[in-house]
Write a structure and sequence with these properties.
Elements: H1 10-16, E1 22-24, H2 30-37, E2 43-47, E3 52-58, E4 75-83, E5 90-98, E6 101-108, H3 111-116, H4 128-142, H5 146-166, H6 176-181, H7 184-190, H8 197-201, H9 204-214, H10 218-262
Helix pairs in contact: 4-5, 5-9, 5-10, 9-10
């Protein structure tokens, strides 16, 4: 059975973690910090200059050692990655290691630039307003604004529920008064035939978003943001797949009808 690390992976440090968030490593977990300091793996991410995903690998001289404590109290260190298509296309990350803490203090391009490319596809299944709110949530999280990013994600979640609600209001047997007074989890259950299975099975996402807005700290929201954003993306991926399937079915019906009439 696999275990989930309580520390960011090197990729999460580089691509997802906002600037200035301090990660403190326990004595027995220094190896997790070494994995970043001595990072020499490949990384699949967006290349702004190629305007598409590419494979990146580390540039320049860097430390390779099995000493788990090699990075401790090393001060500033740089990780530069080069694009496999054009090595002059680079990603730059600056870290600060004080004692047994690591903090990302600079990067180019920005986190938002690296992450926004992957969500462009969702403009096909989100109204313009809510697609803009999705990009705003990513931008806020990349600048260390956790609670604000949750506000926008919750609005998108509510839009998806209301969109499904609009599909059933005229269905025979639908009880609008019961729906209106229901809690969000109950509304999702009532709409389960209209919603992706993932959303129905993980209806607690809404309570997480609401708790983030009203109770959690900025850092707690930032730590949870990648997980909740992934959940929203999975829901949107399901909508994209449904849309593509409907388009294929329509094209197939049209082609078959055309072929039948010509024979």
């Amino acid at each position: 059975m696999s275990t989930v690390s309580k520390y960011p992976t090197p990729k999460e440090f580089l691509i997802d973690l906002p600037l200035y968030e301090i990660v403190t490593f326990e004595d027995e977990d220094l190896e997790e910090g070494r994995k970043l300091y001595c990072f020499n793996e490949t990384l699949d991410t967006y290349c702004p200059e190629c305007n598409q995903h590419s494979i990146f690998s580390r540039l320049g001289n860097y430390t390779t050692t099995s000493d788990a404590s090699v990075w401790v109290d090393q001060g500033r260190f740089v990780i530069s990655l080069g694009c496999s298509r054009n090595r002059s296309h680079t990603l730059f990350f600056l870290f600060q290691a004080d004692g047994q803490t690591i903090q990302k203090i600079g990067q180019l391009p920005s986190i938002a630039s690296l992450n926004l490319f992957d969500v462009k596809k969702y403009s096909k299944v989100l109204d313009k307003k809510y697609f803009q709110e999705l990009t705003k949530s990513i931008g806020l999280a990349s600048h260390g604004v956790g609670v604000g990013s949750f506000v926008y994600l919750r609005r998108i979640f509510e839009f998806l529920i209301e969109e499904a609600h609009g599909n059933v209001t005229s269905v025979e047997g639908w009880n609008e008064s019961t729906y209106t007074t229901a809690r969000m989890a109950e509304k999702i259950e009532m709409l389960k035939t209209q919603l992706p299975d993932f959303l129905v099975e993980n209806k607690s996402m809404y309570s997480i978003l609401s708790k983030g807005i009203h109770e959690l700290s900025e850092n707690e929201c930032l730590a949870a943001f990648p997980v909740v954003k992934l959940g929203i993306e999975i829901i949107l991926d399901d909508k994209l797949e449904k849309m593509r399937r409907e388009q294929k079915l329509a094209e197939a019906k049209k082609a078959i009808a055309s072929l039948a009439s010509s024979l």
